[in-house]
Amino acid sequence: MLHRPARRPQFFYTTAPLPCPYLAGRTERKIVTELAGAEAETLHDRLSRAGFRRSHNIAYSPVCPGCRACIPIRIVAGEFQPDRTQRRIFRQNADLVTAELPARASAEQFALFQRYQGARHGDGDMAAMGFYDYRAMVEDTPITTGIVEFREAGGRLVGACLTDWLSDGLSAVYSFYDAEAAKRSLGTYTILWLVARARALGLPYVYLGYWVPQSAKMSYKSRFRPSETLSGGVWRVLAEHQDHSEALAPEEKLTVTG
Q1: Which of 10, 155, 214, 247 has the fewest Cβ atoms within 10 Å of its own Cβ atom?
Q2: Nearest 5°: phi and psi at 18?
């Protein structure tokens, strides 16, 4: 008689209520599970398609009572059509030198991370992170993860994006950049680069996490079309309001190398 080893059960837990980081006066709760062992990569893929996100070795999804403000969203990379503003942002950052690196923290990254937090999220929990907290955020991963760095021609680091590689796309875990380089629109450029990279790799999606339409800090995620949002366990194309006359000519498609 054949005896198959018993599979390790996957446990899910619900966190205690905490103040919502996106909408004032609301409370958040999450369902969380550990990503560990030989099946971590496969589980993370499945959970990402189910609307979960990753932090360290934990996958989580909001389960806030009476609230559905956090909507999982992903860009359909192969069909992405940047608008006029996005095309301009991509062109004006063509001078940046990009490197895809292993998930290893550096003092240079952390200095940029601190400046970004101080400029954009000074009242948030991440503003108090020390280097070892930052290193844990970058390096504590049980799956295929890297960090993409963006540098000016002189070598100065101006942006970075912690990125998970999934079987069906790229997942932007956390990005940060030089907030003083406002004219570059580096947050938007980072997403445009990920879309172009996913296309080059033949991956269908770029996962952006949660779109929160009522939050000014999170509403930008709906500007990348076409996108899909998850509702009732089904990914559906987000209603299109963009003028299709701005679609790219063939010679203007966003491409990256590497």
Answers
A1: 155
A2: -140, 160
Q: Tell me how far apart the 2 most distant CA atoms of the chain are, in Å.
A: 68
* Per-residue confidence (pLDDT) for residue 68, from 0 to 100: 92
* Single pTM value for the model: 0.89
Q: Which long-range contacts (C-beta less than 8 Å, at least 24 apart) are formed by 127-133?
A: 131/105, 131/107
Q: Which residues contact 199 (CB under 8 A, 6 or more apart)?
A: 77, 78, 80, 254, 255
Dihedral sign, Cα of residue 153, residue 122, residue 34, residue 195: negative
To which residue do tokens 């560990």 refer?
A: 36
Q: What is the DSSP letter of 183?
A: G
CA 69, distance to chain mean position in Å, is 18
Tell me the pLDDT tens digit for each residue of 47-105: 999 999 999 999 999 999 999 999 999 999 999 999 999 999 999 999 999 999 999 99
Nearest to 74 by CA among 148, 171, 142: 171
Query: Is the omega angle on the peptide bond into residue 250 within 30 degrees of 0, that is, cis?
Result: no
How far apart (Å, rounded) are the C-alpha atoms in residues 158 and 180? 10
Q: pLDDT tens across 188-197, in order? A: 999 999 999 9
Going by C-beta distance under 8 Å and a sequence separation of 6 or more, which residues neighbour residue 191?
A: 75, 172, 206, 208, 224
Contact 192, 89 (CB under 8 A): yes
**Closest residue by Cα to residue 194 from 146, 161, 218:** 161
Residues (pLDDT < 70) of the chain are 1-7, 122, 240-258
DSSP-derived secondary structure letter, 168: T
136: CB partners within 8 A, 6+ apart: 56
Q: State residue 7's pLDDT score.
A: 67
